[in-house]
Amino acid sequence: MKLTHYSDLGMRLLMYLALNKDEVVTIQEVSDRFAISKNHLVKISHQLTKSGLIESIRGRNGGVRLARAPEEINVEEALRATEDNFDLVECFSPDSHRCVISDVCKLSGVLDKASAAFFAVLRQFSLADLVKNGQAIENSLLPVPKEIQFMFQQRAKVAEKNKGS
Description:
mainly alpha; 2 strands; 8 helices; elongated; 55% helix
């Protein structure tokens, strides 16, 4: 089984949001920090928003953030939101299978059990589990560009001003 690049990028986005769980993050920031395509991330964030895993905040200080706590989102749920096909072999798909031995073949049953075990393991881990080494992950990311650092500073000032009100 191999996950798609789309799911890989989706997991990176979700992990970054889990690292920054109390903040709204821009897609540009994630793109810069991981050195990945902003256009791909826009598509992925749209899909994750539709699935209810993240929420999109519009406006001048907009961006995305997790819709729920990282502890509440398991890895299986995250992958199912970005992968559209987990059929390991042709006979798993009733629409496209043409195998003449599928009615008597034992391989599909074995692979079905393996797939169930795979998802059972993924259900045991949350996004929070994936970012427990948050500082190490942060240290591995590319530096935050200066314009984004400025935006962080502006947000902090607004947040501080709102706390005083």
